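FORM 7B: Structural annotation worksheet

SECTION A. Query
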Amino acid sequence: MENTANQNAANQNAAKRNAARTTPAAAPTTSPGPASATASATAAAAPVLGPRALNRATLARQLLLTRSRMSAQDALAHLLGLQAQNVKPPYYALAARLDGFAPEELSRLMADREAVRIVTMRSTIHTHTADDCLTLRPLVQPARDRELTYFRKGLVGVDLDRLAALARDLVEAEPRTMKQLREALLVEWPDADPQSLSVAARCRLPLVQVTPRGLWGRSGQVALTTAEHWLGRPAKEPSPHGTSADDTSALDTTVLRYLAAFGPASVKDMQTWAGLTRLRDAFERLRPRLLTFRDEHGTELFDLPDAPRPDPDTPAPPRFLPEFDNLLLSHADRTRVVPADLKGRTWTGNQAYCVLLVDGFLAGLWRLEDRTLTVEPFGELTKGARAAVVEEGERMLAALHGAAAYDIRFGPVVRERERERKHG
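SECTION B. Predicted structure
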């Protein structure tokens, strides 16, 4: 125990020495209660990590500071899945992160049922490894249960347990589209709202999208079956209210994995990523194993002792990321990647855009159409930055589109009023 304590102290001291941009943090806006007084005192003494320090640490965890030689499967597991609202984003996400990535590698994982597309965090579709599908989906079940409350008016008189059982029989007999599932469930509950019935099935059951949907260069409508049926093994069933020792272990493990992929991070950051609430107890259980920092606003941040926290001046090459990349969505405070003056610039209405990072931060948008890669920066780029963006664009195009010839062009600087006029 003494050696462990000494090592923790040494780690904390090293972190203090290496925490660049250390500035006095703002005092908490509310007074802590008695139960949290010790934690608050610890947080107050923690070193401060400025935006660039947080940026470089997060980029390193996200495999965006330097490309990794990981396999696609290992990267998918390390990142706890990739946003996959559309088919192509997971491929572009891995091309930005992995050295030597070829889209056929991820496509093969999906065809072999070692990776799947399923609704998990934040009620959005993610591509996960088979193992994570069977563990993370049950972990976020409370959020799916809460989601159902928004549809309760359309589910009056519907027995949700019976609905889940009937829907399971239907999709395990053969994969069904949402339209087919709605029509079948309406036979049982003709007075219910059709959309609410299909949403209830999706919330109550771990429904995966079967291939060829999601394969590179292939097309296919969204057809669903259960994860257990598709993968040939059962999911971990959560206990009531998540009170079992196994549930606690699964949650604690996920906290540690989240920090490995997105840290340093606050409790609220992880809650934003997972779409869950009440995660404070898990962080407190793990506190003896973690280091603590503060951001410039005084928010307590947790991290793994041996996780990378590079110097804030470490060079960060340009990166082309797909729409809805988890780098931009997995923290409550996104200023570690999105400068405050660019908040809300990556989407208009329900339309999200592919984004460009320069020096590690959001710096523009991009689109690929008619064999032309068009970059639209949010500000003027230096000659050196433009050259680096072109080089990265050529690398991305070669990885995903082979020898096909593409032009790379810079569009006009996208200022806020121009964006509103163009997309409004």
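SECTION C. Observations
Confidence is low (pLDDT under 50) at residues 1-35. The radius of gyration is 23 Å.

SECTION D. Sign-off
Analyst initials: ____
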